From TrEMBL:
Domain Ell binding protein Ebp1 C-terminal: 128-248
Upper taxonomic lineage: Eukaryota, Fungi, Dikarya, Ascomycota, Saccharomycotina
Cross-referenced InterPro entries: Ebp1_C (IPR049403)
Identification of the protein by name: Ell binding protein Ebp1 C-terminal domain-containing protein
One Pfam family, short name: Ebp1_C
Basic and acidic residues compositional bias, start-end: 69-107
Segments crossing the lipid bilayer: none
C-alpha cells in the first residue's frame, strides 16, 4: 500500500517509495506512531530496526533494494551538506573575527607605511649624484687628492717662510761680525741654524707626503754651516756652546744617514734609473762618511760639553731636561723654544731634541750676558 504524502503529515518525505503494512484496527487518520521491527524476515529485508518511545503499535516496513540505495545516497548527501554547512558557519564566524581583526590591524599598518613613506622618499625619486648628504660632503670635505695637495702646499709655504727667516738671520750675523759684535753675531748664527733645521724638516715632510724619496742635499748643507757658527762662537769665547754645536751636527749626520737609508731601500725595491735615487756606490760612500762624521762629533761633544758642565754652567737648561730616557719626538713641526729633550744626547736621540737643547743653552747665555736679542723662531710661536 502506498500513502499519498498529504494523508500522513508526520511521515518523512522519503516514505514515498516505502510500502507500509498497517494493522486493521488503525485508521489512516491517526498519527503514525509505530516501530520499525517485526519479524526477522522483515528486518533482514529492510535492514532497519529502530525503537520508538511508544511501542504499543508495531509496524513493519517493506522497502525494496532500489529504494534503500536511493535512501542511503540521499542520507549521505544530506549529512555531507549539513556537515559542510556547519563547518562553513564556523569558518564564517572565525573568518569574520579574523577579518575584523585584520581590518583593525590594516589601518595601523597602512598608517605605518604612510608615515615611513613620508619620512623616507622612494628609491626611484633619489638621484645618487644629487643626494643632499653627498652634496654636502663634496662641499665640506674635499677628496684625498685635494687634501694631499693642500697639505703639500701648506708644508712648502712653511718651508719657504722659515728659509726666508734663516737667510735674514744669516745676513744679520755677517753684519754683526763685521761690526765686531760677536755675541750678537753668534746668537744670530745659532738662530739661523735653527730656522734652517725647521725649514728642512718641513721640506722632508712634504716629500714624504707626496711619495717622493727624500733628499740629503739640504741636510748636508748644514754640516758646513755649523762650522761657520763654531767660528763665531770661538770669537765670542764660548767653548760650551761650541760643544752644543758638535752635538747638533752629530744629530744632523744621523738625520742624513736616515735619509740615505730610505734611498737605499728605494734602490733595493727597483729604483734604478730614478733620478731621485743615487747609484749604489754613491750611497755606500755617503753612508760611510755619515757614520764617521757623527762618531767624530759625538767624541768632540763629550770632551767639550760633558753632562756635568751643562748642569754647572747652564742650570736652567739642565733643569728643563726630560726625566725619561726615551727620545722625545712629536709629529708636528719643530718648536725649539718649547720642545723637550733628554740628556745626554746620543745616537738614538733626535734632531728635534738637539735643536731644543741648542735654543735653550743659547737663550740662557745671552740673557746671562745681558744681550738684547729677538729670536726669529720664537716670533712665529
Amino acid at each position: 500500500m502506498s500513502l499519498p504524502p498529504m494523508l500522513s503529515p508526520t511521515l518523512p518525505p522519503w516514505t514515498d517509495c516505502v510500502q507500509v503494512e498497517f494493522p486493521k484496527m488503525l485508521s489512516p487518520t491517526l498519527p503514525a506512531v509505530f516501530e520499525f521491527g517485526g519479524s526477522k524476515k522483515t528486518a533482514q529485508k529492510t535492514g532497519l530496526s529502530h525503537e520508538m518511545k511508544d511501542k504499543s503499535f508495531p509496524v513493519t516496513l517493506k522497502v525494496s533494494k532500489k529504494a534503500l540505495s536511493r535512501l542511503d545516497s540521499k542520507s549521505d548527501v544530506s549529512k555531507a551538506t549539513e556537515d559542510d554547512a556547519r563547518e562553513g558557519s564556523r569558518e564564517s564566524k572565525t573568518n569574520g573575527r579574523t577579518e575584523n581583526r585584520k581590518e583593525k590591524e590594516e589601518p595601523s599598518s597602512s598608517a605605518r607605511s604612510s608615515a615611513s613613506s613620508a619620512r623616507i622618499p622612494a628609491a626611484r625619486d633619489l638621484d645618487k649624484s644629487t643626494t643632499p648628504t653627498k652634496a654636502k660632503s663634496k662641499a665640506v670635505s674635499p677628496t684625498r687628492d685635494e687634501e694631499t695637495k693642500q697639505q703639500f702646499k701648506l708644508l712648502r709655504k712653511k718651508m719657504r717662510t722659515w728659509l726666508d727667516l734663516a737667510r735674514a738671520k744669516k745676513h744679520m750675523s755677517d753684519a754683526k761680525f763685521t761690526s765686531e759684535e760677536f755675541a750678537l753675531a753668534s746668537a744670530a748664527a745659532m738662530d739661523s741654524l735653527l730656522c734652517y733645521i725647521i725649514a728642512f724638516n718641513y721640506e722632508e715632510r712634504a716629500d714624504i707626503l707626496t711619495g717622493r724619496v727624500p733628499q740629503d742635499k739640504s741636510w748636508g748643507s748644514l754640516v758646513n754651516f755649523v762650522n761657520r757658527v763654531n767660528f763665531l762662537l770661538e770669537a765670542a769665547k764660548q767653548p760650551h756652546l761650541i760643544g752644543c754645536c758638535y752635538l747638533m751636527r752629530a744629530m744632523i749626520h744621523v738625520r742624513v744617514g736616515l735619509v740615505l737609508g730610505t734611498q737605499a731601500k728605494a734602490l733595493a725595491r727597483g729604483g734604478e734609473g730614478n733620478d731621485e735615487v743615487p747609484p749604489a756606490e754613491t750611497l755606500a760612500l755617503s753612508l760611510c762618511r755619515t757614520q764617521e762624521g757623527y762618531t767624530a762629533d759625538f767624541r768632540r761633544a763629550s770632551r767639550s760639553l760633558p753632562l756635568s758642565q751643562i748642569s754647572q754652567h747652564f742650570p736652567q737648561s739642565y733643569g728643563r731636561r726630560s726625566r725619561t730616557a726615551v727620545p722625545v719626538v712629536h709629529g708636528g713641526g719643530y718648536r725649539p723654544w718649547s720642545d723637550e729633550y733628554a740628556l745626554p744626547l746620543h745616537v738614538y736621540s733626535s734632531l728635534q731634541e738637539a735643536a731644543a737643547l741648542g735654543w735653550n743653552m743659547t737663550d740662557e747665555w745671552i740673557r746671562t750676558e745681558g744681550v738684547k736679542y729677538e729670536w726669529a723662531c720664537r716670533a712665529l710661536a
